[in-house]
Amino acid sequence: MRSHSLPLMMGNHSDLKLDNATLALLNSVNTRITISVIYMIVTVINLVGNGLSMWLLIFHTSPKTPSIIFMINLTLTDMAVGVALPFQIAYQLQGYHWTLGPTMCSVLTLVFYTNMYCSILTMMAIGIVRYLGIILPMRYRDKVGTGKKKSIAIISCFLMWGLVLCVLHPLMTTDLTFYIPELKITTCFDMLKKEMLPSKAAWATFLFSMVFFLFLFPFCVTTFCYVRVILKLAKNSQKTTQKKRAIRLVIVVLLVFTLCFAPNNILLLTHSVLKLFYNRSLYMAYKLSLCLSCLNSCLDPFIYYFACKEFRQKLRKLMNLTSVTSVDSMKMKHKESFYSAHFDSSEREHSKER
């Protein structure tokens, strides 16, 4: 989730008593303005960067390899957040007062949650593709045909969405708005009714499932894949621009996980334990960590730049940074055959050279 805090689990409205941390956040004008400004900047960069990325990936990148399919999926989720963020900005500027009704609150909450976790799972899938292409190139090429790779990638995207929606199912069946008489505001997913789930055990299962299955496990898999890729590339004595670019790609991906996803999910887990079992909270810290998680949607285009050779070429040509002639293109394909053949559209050239 990118823009909503982990809610405080409350009872009915009559026995509502806000703790000091919650009151401090809801009454802090400076915090609301700061978060709103960050979201405004993210929205602009998100829509411009991902709009350009989507245009290049769909209409100017061919063939559609598994990596490209995963990138398109990632761009779709990022653009959904860019479209939804203005509603969150308005909510913040109005003092956490939601005026668009329960249905819209549920839809936007689901958008933010789904984006975050689909992004994590998609980046894991891209990491697995890179691992197979660099660490197990012969086995990956010989046992899985091009058409089958595309089919697996498309099915994987649907499975990711299905898994995330299954875990987040409680959010689709509950009124996520909550009226606070003390402040005369209606929050959207900043506080939830205890009866949303039947017991503490159910709450713990729901929250720990998000952290473990949708963050911790994918993070471990992605880290393993990219560390192995770095070690493999480091062993090659040939110092090339393509090798350096591939290593930079790994660094960018791990940086996104470390800066954008890890603080948010670690605080999610910590806050959940404190709130469920000790009636304490890290509400303010968790809310502020969401600003970092939003940055992911702005950094993804940089991942595409390092991951996809054809994306780089088209972007440079569009920005008049370089003109790629057919001869230059052939040279680039030859040079990048080892490092990016299984990353993008040069898979076919790699197969021929092997």
TrEMBL record:
Name the domain of life this protein comes from: Eukaryota
Q: How does it sit in the membrane?
A: Multi-pass membrane protein
Would you kindly state one Gene Ontology biological process term found in this protein's UniProt entry? Answer: positive regulation of Rho protein signal transduction
UniProt KW keywords: Cell membrane, Disulfide bond, G-protein coupled receptor, Glycoprotein, Membrane, Receptor, Transducer, Transmembrane, Transmembrane helix
Where does the sequence pass through the membrane?
Answer: 33-58, 70-91, 111-132, 152-172, 201-226, 246-264, 284-307
Q: Which GO terms describe its molecular function?
A: thrombin-activated receptor activity
Tell me where it resides: Cell membrane
What is the protein's given name?
G-protein coupled receptors family 1 profile domain-containing protein
